Structures are given as structure tokens and as C-alpha cells.
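Example complex used in Figure S2.
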Amino acid sequence: MAVKSAGIRDVAQLAGVSVTTVSHVLNDTPNMRVSVETRARVRHAAKTLGYGPNRMAQALRTNRSGLIGLLSEEIATTPHAGRIILGAQNAAREHDLTLVIINTERDAGGTSHRDDVQALIDRQVDAVLYATMYHRSVSLPPNLQDLPAVLIDSTDRAGIVPAVVPDEVGGAVAAVTHLVEAGHTRIGFLNNDDDVPATHLRFAGYRQVLQAHDIPFDEDLVFSAPSETLPGYGLARELLGRSDRPTALFCYNDRMAMGAYRAATELGLEIPRDLSIVGFDNQELIAANLFPGLTTVALPHYEMGVWAVETLVHLLHGEAEYRLIADKPALLDCPLVIRGSVAQPRAN
Amino acid sequence: MAVKSAGIRDVAQLAGVSVTTVSHVLNDTPNMRVSVETRARVRHAAKTLGYGPNRMAQALRTNRSGLIGLLSEEIATTPHAGRIILGAQNAAREHDLTLVIINTERDAGGTSHRDDVQALIDRQVDAVLYATMYHRSVSLPPNLQDLPAVLIDSTDRAGIVPAVVPDEVGGAVAAVTHLVEAGHTRIGFLNNDDDVPATHLRFAGYRQVLQAHDIPFDEDLVFSAPSETLPGYGLARELLGRSDRPTALFCYNDRMAMGAYRAATELGLEIPRDLSIVGFDNQELIAANLFPGLTTVALPHYEMGVWAVETLVHLLHGEAEYRLIADKPALLDCPLVIRGSVAQPRAN
DNA sequence: ACGTTTTGCCAAAACGTCTTGGCATAGATA
DNA sequence: TATCTATGCCAAGACGTTTTGGCAAAACGT
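Predicted assembly (696 residues):
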């Protein structure tokens, strides 16, 4: 079945040179001394034999496996992880690296995470990507310091490892600005009640926009609850039932927005005529399938995957200073995705 | 940074034996001849040094990399791919194999898929998993025959490669039976209109249940449209607007079911009191977030990932005959996930 | 006591590549 | 012409394992 493929020796023989020369030519060894004709002959021979280097032998000799490990929480639960993988994979391929994936449990106690990292180290990965399911601050397993690493969607509590996270504030600013520019001034905010960065940062973005537009902040317009559909429904029900109800809602995430849709329907409010809504996360399955489509903010999962791999490559090539990058987490843009849930407020 | 770890030589030295002996002991080489005491000494030495074998050297020597490639379509688009990855990864880990993932484009023309397979071969994977995004029949790139392979969620048009797919008929039977057992006899079916296996098989399951329960098949209760929310809404609207409307709906997938929910709401039908609905796919984001939760059929993505890896392992160990397995695709169970969208039909 | 088997261990080769330190020849410099 | 430098190439060792074929010593059989 598996056909034994040509080795460097076969190429050497066909080209009539030594293996040394073949290696030099195919690797473009800096300041090698091989005549132009010989190079051509070698390249030709390699091509006709369909030669590809044996990665294992290469790895053994050079001590670089070309593998990079992606440690990802809960791959299954969310499409987000998928986009990270996709971005990382594409970037890796660009640099002739191979992505190996290990799933890890979110809140596994004890040495579980350390074991996962160790599993990757045992497999000779050159570096590791550590991706969490949502933006938060983590304390890292100690053995992660044994090799280059980059954090995705989380920051190192100790501030030692480079990290990339979404620009939550910017995303919230984009969302709320969109509402303000449509003419809204009474904008409710259905926030998450977990103590995670996103909670505070999206709220900060919300306030920032109000202030920039001289809209007074009204704390009666801000409610918090677990970031699920049902609590979102409950909150929206309450907020929209009031006589001085807001004309627009900014929701912590798309699931809460989904709940708000239901509340609006039940109260006889038509979206976006009577109520504008903006979500966060751009969960296609929800946002694109609601009626009307939910205008929301996209998280840059794909881009974070790419960024992380690119950064690793720089690190591995020694082109970048580890500490320098680790200093501040990189912020990636959260673009607004406009669908159909925002309109001008109805002239009373 | 990366600490150079102990090699087999260090272990040998510490234990006072030759590397040969160490290798034998640690690999449990069949009918090796090493005294019990020596084994203990070697094991102890290995442990104290924290020895782990260099996989690259191992791979080079044994010509087995321990890598298995997962070629997956459109990782990003769907959580389904995530569950396949998760299952495959867990099973791989169980067998001390490492999963490397390559994303491929769904309908990429030309030699694209062949190139993807080649990329994996070039990376010395021992075998490959080929996963498609939804159940269908494919023609495989020729170089996939150069090494063991298993198909996930698709079948080989040529019938050469082993495959595992969901038991669509069984799933549909479970869904419709659930409705029948709740007392429904007028059950509408909102089907997909693509010519893919699932379309025909789920329909077959639907008919099968009717027949088994002596319920006459009424073709006016079966509608087809693209399997999206909006078409689902349209179909449901039409079907439910009629005077002799069905008391229950079986939907091709959860998105169509989501559309049906909306139609029901607009027509003043309360789910499940006035209308029972069963979906297919168990897309958590939709099914768990609708009101009430959607009873639906789960696809065995995780299980297919596991099955595929297990099968590969058997193949690699030569414990199973390739042709034998390839003969018929394996069918995996599609269990019913009961939430809140089914009830007895209302006594008129 | 002598051959034979079994037990316990090891030396050395091999896997396919990269890399160091050469050695010739040709051209340049004196 | 004699020396020096640059050019073009190669032999051989190393990376860390596994595996083959052995060799002593101990155990066994007669």
C-alpha cells in the first residue's frame, strides 16, 4: 500500500552528486557553493523522483519538529473554537508548520492542564497555542514556560506569555455607536453578570459612547443576568414592559438578544420598527436565523488564530523579543455585522 | 528555555545497563530476556529522569509517526466538525496517536483535495480520516489509496474505503415514532429538497413509521424546500394555515424547525399544546434556545470520530481486513433528544 | 563431568537527514 | 613561477531510537 518514496540518496544518485550537495541545494543553505548547473540538475532530479524530505529524519537532525500544538478548551461546544482552529491551521500551513490539536477540559482541576501541555511537549511540538473558550484571565501550567507559547482569547495572569484577545471595548463602541447614529438615545443594555473581562469591557464601551455623544447615563437602563436566552428574555420583558421603555437594546451576546426577540414579540413590538437590537458574538446559527437577522458584533476568532501562529513564527525565528510582546495583550478588531435589527426610532 | 530532556542513554547509564536493555524494558518487547530486578532498575531510572522517548527518533526508526491526519471540510462553519474532531482526538489519545488537522474546502475543484491528502502524506501521517460536513457520497482523491483511510459522514462512491455514517433512517424512525406514541396521526413532514442521502433516508424513516402503525400516507402532508429557516417558515405557514392542519411536524433539520416555530407563533398556535414539533441535527444553539426547547434527533458526530479512529487502529494493527470493513458503511445511532416541543394532540 | 539449552545482557548497524571540516582544482595576486 | 584565495564538491559523523545477532554464564540433562 504505502509506496516507499524516494530519499535524498536517490536524488543524489540521479543527479550524479553527493547527498551533501542535494541537501544544500534543496535547503538553499546560505552561502553554499554549488554551481548553477548542478543546482538545476539536482532540482530536476528531485522533481522527477517526486522527492519530499522525510520530516521525521529532518526533525531528528535539526531538533525542530515543525509541529505546533493547539491546546483548546471545549472544542465541541462552540463554533468559536472552530474558527480559531481554522485561522491557526491556515497560517500554520503558510509557514509549513503542522497543527496538532489537543482538547482540554475547561475547569479540570489539579494537574490536568499541565498534563495536556506535557502531552504536547512529549510529542516534540516546537511551540504551543493555548486557547480558551471565552475571554478571560488564566494562570498557566508551569511547564508552558519550557517552550514558546501564545495565548488566544485569554491573558496570562502573570503577564509572561504573549496573548491576543478581542477588542471588547471597540466592539461595544461600534455596536452602540451604530444605534446612536440611527438616532437612538434611550438605549438599554442587557449585560452578563459574570465577573469576566467582557462584562466590564463591553459595559465600558457602552458608557464611552454615551459620554461621547452627551447622552446621560441612566442606570435604570442597565440590567444584568446570566448570559443565556432565558435570562435575556426575562430582563427584556421587564425593561420593555415599562412605560419609558428604551427604543433600542444592546445585548451582551446573541443568546440574550434571542431572548429579547421573544420578549419583543410577546409585547407586540416589531423589530426593528418599534425596537432596535444589537447583539454580540455573531453566532451565525442564531443571528442569521432570527427574523429579522440580528445585527451584531463579530469576535475575531479566525484572526486571533492567525495572529497567534504568526507571532509564534516570529518568536521561533528569533525575530521578536518574547518579553516585548508579552507586555500587553494584542487587541483585535471586533467588526459590526449589520443585518436587519436596527432602524431609526419611531417618531412618537 | 526548552530544557534538553533525558535520552535513553542517560537512563541506561543510571540503571547500569545497555541502551538495548532499556529499549526492551520500556517497550515490553515480546519475549525479551531481562531479569525482573533489572527491569525494575530500568523503570526506576526512567522515572527519576523523567524520561520520555523522542518521538521523532522513534518514528524514523520504526517508520511509524504516530500521526493521523484528519482532513475536514469547513471546520469553521459548523459545530458538527468540532464534535468529530473531539471524538477523534479523544480516541487517538487513547491509543497514543496524535491528530493533525487539515482544513479543506468543500467544493474546491481540480486537484485541491489531492493536494491536501498529499500534504498529510508528506507529513508522514500513518493514516488519514476524511470527514465531510454532511452525509453524502464522494469520489476520493487517488492518493488516498496509498495509506489506510476511513471516511466520516460520507461514503466512497467507489466502495473501496471504509466509512461511517449516521443511521438517518433510524433517527427519523425514532423521531416520528415519538410523535406517534404521543398520539399523533396527522404528522406533517418538512423535508429538504436537495438530492442528498439524508433527504431520502429521513423520508424513508417517516414512511416506515406510518406504515408500521397503519397510518395512511398522505402526500399533502409532505413539503420540500431548501433546508433553511426561511423556507421552513414558509412551508410551515402554508401547511399550518390549512383547516385540516397536522397536529405535529417532523422537520428535516433544526433550522427548518426554527422557521416552523415562528409560523406557529404567528398563527397563534402554542407549542406543544397546539402543535408538536420534532427537528433533526440537535444544533444546541437553536434547539436548546427555542421556547420551548426543541425535541430533536442528534447526529452521532462524536461517535463517528471515535469509530473512525478505532477502525484505523485495527487496520494499522492488521487486526481487520480492509475490504471487509469497506464493504458496507457502518451506521451509527441517532438518538432522540427530548426537550419540550412534543405533547399529546389536543382533544378537539 | 560433559554437552546442551536457557537466561541475561550487549555491541553495532540502521532509519534519512543536516552539517562540519575537509580536499582538490581554477583563478587571482605577487 | 610560486603563492594565495575562491569555488565546487564530498566523506563522514551525528541526531535518538529499534532491532539483529551475538556471547558469556547459569541451569539442566545424562
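Chain A touches chain B through 53 residues (CB under 8 Å). The longest helix of chain A spans residues 79-94.
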